Amino acid sequence: MTSHKPDDWDDIPPPPLTHSRLCPVFLALGWVCVGLGFVGAFVPGLPTTIFLIIALWAFSKSSDRLRWWLWTHPKFGEPLRDWHMHRVIPPPAKAAAVVMMMVSVAIVSVGASSWQAPVILAAVLAPIAVWIVTRRSAVPVADAVSADV
User: Exposed site from 18, 25, 73, 87, fewest CB < 10 Å?
Assistant: First the structure.
């Protein structure tokens, strides 16, 4: 059986813990994150991509076959590769993350009996939102052109 791995497959380091006693732990973590990512694809407010990024990392420590499966997945493979190689977060994902953070602060504000909880939550989420918004939104042109060749 021939493997049709992309040229950039070598950009991912080989799994260093493949024969470690921790392999079953990483494998379980990967599957839990795939499950949460799957649920997040249908449940508003539950993220998908971050769980799949964690799953890809966990599979890279436990199963080359499952890492390859996520890396080449028809729906999730491209965003995972874009994040891994270029640290790209697409604009819709950025918007969804920031909006859900704002909704969370609003819900806590309405339900809180004092002002401290919403302020603390906003103080924690604001730097995360800034970090998300300041990540690249698209693969750099030079990298996109060289990937097409």
Answer: 87
For the whole prediction, is pTM greater than 0.85?
A: no
Which residues make Cβ contacts (< 8 Å) with residue 63, sequence separation at least 6? 15, 18, 23, 27, 30
Q: Report d(CA 41, CA 21) in Å as an integer.
A: 32
Tell me how far CA of residue 112 lies from CA of 77, 99, 149, in angstroms: 40, 20, 55
Q: How far is CA 60 from the centre of its chain?
A: 14
How many angstroms from the chain centroid is the CA of residue 141? 22
Mean pLDDT by 10 residues, the chain (149 residues): 54 57 92 93 81 91 89 90 89 88 93 93 94 92 61
